[in-house]
Amino acid sequence: MQSIKDAAAAFLAHRRIAVTGVSRQPKGHGANVVYQRLRQRGYEVFAVNPNAEEVEGDPCFGDLRAIPGGVEAVVIGTRPEVAEATMRECAELGIGHVWMHRGPGSGSVSPAAAAAGRERGIAVIDGGCPCMFGPTSDPGHQAMRAVLTLTGNVPRRV
């Protein structure tokens, strides 16, 4: 196991990242916040939503396989019950880093998906948000990280 800080740094070292669950209506959707922040910080980021052709003015892909050139890492921002299928797709595509987004609520974390990913050699972060760490962080997310670490929504080790 490694610290969340080290796992986050390894995840954010990848430059081509997909975000699943990005909504056509961005207000209030955690996946959209992550998508926007990664894009603003210079990442090559890809929106994934099987029900949208365009999100935030960018092309949107129905699944990870549809992304030209593939990705190195994935943020799961969908309902937890969808996370297992996404994790299987990551394993099939050789994607080695997955972050299941979780803020104050239940988020996208699925214990079964996390276990399945780890069994397949995927580095899984099961909670928190990339916006809480390193080059993508901001003071608001840093404060949320402190509080959500205390409540267990941000793991200390992964």
TrEMBL record:
Residues 11-102 form the CoA-binding domain. It comes from the Bacteria. Pfam families: CoA_binding_2 (PF13380). InterPro entries: CoA-bd, NAD(P)-bd_dom_sf. PANTHER family: COA-BINDING DOMAIN-CONTAINING PROTEIN (PTHR33303:SF2), CYTOPLASMIC PROTEIN-RELATED (PTHR33303). This is CoA-binding protein.
